[in-house]
């Protein structure tokens, strides 16, 4: 039996919820309860199996099953009812229920049905992960509740042809999530094109996005198809959308509203069919208040607004991510080649503990860089904490003496700086403002504590 699954128990009778919870917890599962179908809908993205009563106040169990099928089509639902007729059972299965139990049910039968449903959910999830990895060309790593919730949201929105705004700190993986939306959309046979709004001067942004005709300006010796035209039929990812100049924001808004662009030096607009996914680490509502971002463009982009969580909220994923990066860079640096004299590259327990302890203001990108650096300098064998973080010190056993006042103050200050940088999305000026110091002072402290990149 598969143990450790998270089960949603949805029933308006407390006594029934108690009985089901005790039966499943004693079998090694975790349980979250809901007193109504409406309350249960809020938990769907987090759970592996649903056990629901058929007859409840408000939304019925059958309507609940239909709604689950719309939101989480692969989530198994087991219905409980005192009305054990064959007609009700058939109706429940037609609605999409995984299985059906009549009250009073045997505890062993409940455990068995839930275990089979949990195993099916796991198999479906692994199949989706393999398909996603094949489409993306890289693994999609993460099983923490907050990351699974994000993937569930992505699964819902990918097939719906609307604009998406991805918000999150620098290094969280917003571009990967954009790719995931594209590969699971109906546009996945067309190109996905990326434009970094912060990487190009304002005077060139219009030409790059919308294209230009030959002779449109000095140096335009030939026509150029802009990024909107290149993405026609597919997806255009606008990275760092908060850095797009105001004058260009108006033209992007028109492209989204009218579905047309006008290249520089031309007199006629061109129709384009593009899905836009915008990414930002900035607070766009604050940018709107400051007059730096158009409110009408924000609402056009944020039809669906998804937040990519920082690594500090995905602590359960750190070891899996670290192992993925270890395998990637061990292969790249030829450290795991069969027949080599040294041992296969592995992490020590101390190294893994240190990885879990760090605040990771640079998020997944910082974690990858730390692993890549350690393996680039490795000859194989064990990777210890000191190999990952030189500030940890040598490999000698740590002293058992209590740290002195200076060391404790430094540790507190380092953690405070790291957390403030993380909450500010890596923006040094904003972090300095929150800490009440100058940006120069902040940079000095980042260098001192090994936080500068």
Description:
With 453 residues, the chain is α/β, with parallel strands linked by helices. The protein has four domains: 6-127, Response regulator (Rossmann fold, 3-Layer(aba) Sandwich), CATH 3.40.50; 145-309, Rossmann fold (3-Layer(aba) Sandwich); 311-398, Helicase, Ruva Protein, domain 3, CATH 1.10.8.60; 404-453, Homeodomain-like (Arc Repressor Mutant, subunit A). The chain is built from 19 helices and 14 strands. It has helices at 14-25, 37-40, 61-71, 86-94, 107-136, 145-158, 174-183, 202-210, 227-230, 246-258, 284-289, 295-301, 318-332, 349-357, 363-376, 385-388, 405-423, 428-435, 439-448; strands spanning 6-10, 30-34, 49-53, 77-81, 99-102, 164-167, 192-196, 235-239, 260-261, 270-271, 275-280, 304-307, 346-347, 382-383. A five-stranded parallel beta sheet has the order 2-1-3-4-5, with helices on both faces. Strands 7-8-11-6-12 form a five-stranded parallel beta sheet. α4 links the parallel β4 and β5. α13 crosses α15 (363-376) and α17 (405-423) packs across α18 (428-435). The chain starts with 5 loop residues before the first strand and ends in a 5-residue tail after the last helix. Residues 394-404 have low confidence and may be disordered.
Average pLDDT works out at 85
Give the low-confidence spans.
Answer: 394-404
Instruction: Tell me the domain tally.
Output: 4
Main sheet? 5 strands, parallel
Q: Biggest sheet: strands side by side, in what order? A: 2-1-3-4-5
Tally of contiguous helical segments: 19
Globally, the shape reads globular
Tell me how many strands there are. 14
CATH class descriptor name of the largest domain: Alpha Beta
CATH superfamily of the largest domain: P-loop containing nucleotide triphosphate hydrolases
């Amino acid at each position: 039996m598969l143990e450790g699954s998270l089960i949603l128990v949805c029933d308006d009778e407390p006594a029934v919820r108690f009985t089901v919870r005790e039966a499943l917890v004693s079998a090694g599962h975790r349980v979250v309860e809901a007193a109504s179908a409406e309350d249960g809908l809020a938990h769907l993205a987090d759970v592996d199996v649903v056990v629901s009563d058929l007859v409840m106040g408000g939304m019925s169990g059958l309507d609940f099953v239909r709604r689950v099928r719309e939101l989480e089509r692969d989530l198994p639902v087991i219905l409980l009812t005192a009305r054990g007729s064959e007609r009700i059972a058939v109706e429940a299965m037609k609605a999409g229920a995984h299985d059906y139990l009549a009250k009073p049910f045997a505890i062993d039968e409940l455990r068995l049905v839930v275990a089979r449903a949990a195993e099916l959910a796991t198999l479906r999830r692994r199949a989706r992960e393999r398909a996603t990895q094949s489409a993306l060309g890289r693994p999609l790593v993460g099983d923490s509740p907050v990351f699974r919730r994000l993937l569930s949201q992505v699964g819902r929105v990918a097939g719906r042809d609307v604009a998406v705004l991805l918000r999150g700190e620098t290094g969280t993986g917003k571009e990967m999530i954009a790719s995931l939306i594209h590969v699971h959309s109906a546009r996945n046979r067309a190109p996905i094109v990326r434009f970094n709004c912060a990487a190009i001067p304002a005077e060139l942004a219009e030409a790059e996005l919308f294209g230009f005709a030959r002779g449109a300006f000095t140096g335009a010796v030939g026509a150029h198809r802009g990024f909107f035209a290149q993405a026609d039929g597919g997806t255009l990812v606008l990275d760092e959308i908060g850095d797009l100049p105001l004058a260009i924001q108006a033209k992007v808004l028109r492209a989204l509203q009218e579905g047309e662009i006008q290249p520089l030096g031309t007199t006629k607009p061109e129709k384009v069919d593009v899905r836009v996914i915008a990414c930002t680490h900035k607070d766009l509502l604050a940018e709107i208040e400051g007059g730096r971002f158009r409110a009408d463009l924000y609402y056009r982009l944020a039809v669906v607004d998804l937040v990519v969580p920082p690594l500090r909220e995905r602590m359960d994923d750190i070891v899996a991510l670290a192992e993925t990066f270890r395998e990637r860079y061990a292969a790249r640096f030829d450290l795991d080649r069969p027949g080599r004299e040294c041992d296969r590259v592995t992490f020590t327990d101390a190294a893994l503990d240190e990885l879990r302890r760090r605040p990771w203001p640079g998020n997944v990108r910082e974690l990858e860089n730390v692993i890549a650096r350690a393996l680039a300098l490795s000859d194989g064998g064990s990777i210890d904490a000191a190999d990952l973080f030189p500030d940890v010190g040598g490999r000698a056993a740590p002293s058992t003496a209590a740290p002195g006042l200076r060391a404790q103050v430094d540790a507190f200050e380092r953690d405070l700086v790291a957390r403030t940088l993380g909450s500010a999305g890596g923006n040094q000026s904003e972090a300095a403002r929150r800490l009440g110091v100058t940006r120069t002072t902040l940079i000095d402290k980042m260098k001192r504590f090994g936080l500068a990149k």
